[in-house]
From TrEMBL:
Protein name, as recorded: Limiting CO2-inducible protein B/C beta carbonyic anhydrase domain-containing protein
Domain Limiting CO2-inducible protein B/C beta carbonyic anhydrase: 22-230
InterPro entries recorded: LCIB/C_CA
């Protein structure tokens, strides 16, 4: 673990841990609580399709079945109800569903928010590029209400999400951080709607949400969990597992 870089991340996201440790913690809690191992878990994620998220994806996550990819640009679950229903039909009968969602944000080794140094490039680049691009248009008053095109649907949808929270983002001390929080809330709201409209042929759903934090090419990725809960589909009971995590 790069302790110097971790201290930089912790100045912005105090509860962040490496994605490897985050996945270890998630799987350990599930096994302790439910007696289920990784191979019994059908896993979906809703994170940005940015290549850096694949490069920095935690290896242990692949011990679960999947991941089924719900997310498009900025992590919004553009796969929609059809995607969620398809994923639900893949769960083992004696297993459980795990759904993880997160927007991502870059933090360079120097502490620059919203950019990272990528492999093979001499200069930093935006991360999340879609969020930074939408934010730039918002700050320049270039987003029009309900302006959504077929050719750039996902980007336009993100722009509309930011436009609905224009004052909140523009008045923030760090607009890119606030925009990332707005994105997290939008993703969470949509994930909850999709879950409510889906039948899962199993007893357990585990839902985790957070902020996925990318570093420079020579650093690890990190994650700050904001939600970790269990739903028993037989009893209808929901339990908060954050304290166990």
């Amino acid at each position: 673990m790069d302790k110097k870089y971790l201290s930089t991340v912790h100045k912005i996201y105090p509860a962040a841990r490496t994605t490897e440790h985050a996945i270890d913690g998630l799987l350990d809690v599930i096994e302790r609580k439910l007696g289920l191992k990784a191979g019994q878990l059908m896993y979906a994620d809703s994170i940005c399709c940015d290549d850096v998220n694949i490069i920095q994806y935690p290896a242990r996550a692949y011990e679960m079945l999947g991941p089924f990819k719900m997310g498009g640009l900025s992590g919004f679950p553009f796969a929609g109800i059809s995607g969620m229903n398809a994923f639900a039909n893949h769960v083992p009968e004696e297993g459980a569903v795990v759904i993880f969602y997160a927007p991502h944000i870059g933090i360079s080794r120097a502490g620059k928010i919203g950019e990272i140094h990528r492999i093979g490039q001499s200069d930093n680049s935006a991360c999340c590029g879609a969020a930074v691009g939408a934010l730039t248009k918002l700050m320049n008053n270039e987003i029009l209400m309900d302006d959504i095109t077929v050719l750039d649907y996902q980007m336009n949808a993100i722009e509309q999400i930011f436009l609905r929270h224009k004052d909140r983002i523009k008045n923030a001390e760090h607009p890119i951080l606030e925009a990332t929080e707005v994105m997290y809330e939008a993703i969470e709201q949509r994930i909850d709607v999709l879950i409510s409209k889906t039948h899962y042929p199993c007893k357990h759903i585990i839902i985790a949400g957070g902020i996925f934090i990318n570093g420079d090419k020579d650093t690890e990725s990190y994650c700050e969990y904001k939600r970790f809960e269990h739903r028993n589909l037989e009893t209808g009971q929901t339990s908060d597992w954050m304290k166990d995590f």
